[in-house]
Amino acid sequence: MNAMNWLVVYPEALLLLLACTVTLVDLYVTDERRRPTFWLTQASLVCVAAIHLAYYQGGATVYGMQGMMVSDPMGHLLAFFATVAVIVTIAYAQPYIASRDMLKGEFFSLTMFMLLGVCVMCSANNFLVIYLGLEIMSLSLYALVALRRDHGVSTEAAMKYFVLGALASGFLLYGLSMMYGATRSLEINEVFQAIGTGRINSTVLTFGVVFVVAGLAFKLGVVPFHMWVPDVYHGAPTAVTLLIGGAPKLAAFAITVRLLVEGMLGLSVDWQQMMVVLAVSSLVIGNLAAIAQTNLKRMLAYSTISQMGFMLLGMTAGVVSGNTLSAGNAYSSSMFYVVTYVITTLGTFGLIMFLARSGFESEEITDLSGLGKRAPWLAGIMTLFMFSLAGVPPMVGFYAKLAILQALITTNLTSYLVLAVVAVLLSLIGAFYYLRIVKVMYFDEPLASNAGRPVQGIGVSALLAVNGAAVLVFGLLPGGLMAMCRDAILRALAT
To answer: What is the average per-residue pLDDT within 417-426?
Structure first.
């Protein structure tokens, strides 16, 4: 039994060991560009990603650590994509942070500890373990946002993120404590069984669900718990903004499924109604507010709010008229959506960092003016990302949106059909600010501040090309990735 316990947490234990190793090795690195630390970090993360992929392909669901952790395909698939997202982020970030005196061992160590929190959340089967993973991830991100200590805007963003993050953690913890009080268990499986009996205080359960959903909504960054997103995305160094917008979104989806689907599916009538309100509000506020933005990072922040709102639409269609026949289709569509969103976000912020240079952040929309003339291949890649976020075929974002809409329509209920129509109309509004970026790149004249061709390493250029190709290829051939998501969700629901 002890050996099985360690096998369940082996990827997380290895990641912890490697993170500590990177921290210690960096103490003896004298290279100003931190090349040994960079390559050791990347090699460590590749090993972790390979282990998660191997566990996913094994297909087994195993509980360990007295039922507090679970090793299942969904957790390992999400952890694999999160690890890959961090690998790509660090590769994009190295030239950027080097020019801003941020290329220090702390960046790599905190990033690995942030990923550790993400992986713990993906594999948690206990309320306290979920909260532990959440705090490991959140505390690392708070420090990363404030890493540029001499920059007032970054420090302000870190303070806002910390205060509002603590408030959201309190909401989640209070909701989990109410769930524990009602069900007398911290394990997700036992909570599910207790709710199924129907012999517990429904009022306490309902209040618990409200606070849990509020905490999850903050981590997803949806309305009305979105206040931190624009300020933190704007104020944080772009490398850290990408860290926040990548792997943590996968972790937030993971704990949403663990808590609401695996633990509280019997209360779906309550939390699905809340999800509808959160989703529609996020689509309205996110898309309308993004139109008014002139700062590219703030625009992408409001875009994130609307994108997460669209993803939540899939979560609302899992239980229809008391049956769960559409659960696998609905939740797998949401999982596919969040994975493809992270892939697109990686490239978008990676390109912003690619265009930045010392003393120039390239974060205003006007900074992209004339990019089609200065660097046509960069403008082409950015166009792919904008089309994907807007849902223009044949990009992967189109298929992701189509999968969510299909999950809503196949319920055969008028209310969900109306919801699908509303989502389409709001997405059309949102397409305006994505297409505006394309217009600025190809039809506006370059400014004096951004004149000249961007000069960066060939490695980052190649990675951007691969990232752009992934957005196109997954859009043309989405079946494989969708099948992986569906398989992972079905196996999670089966246990």
So the answer is: 93
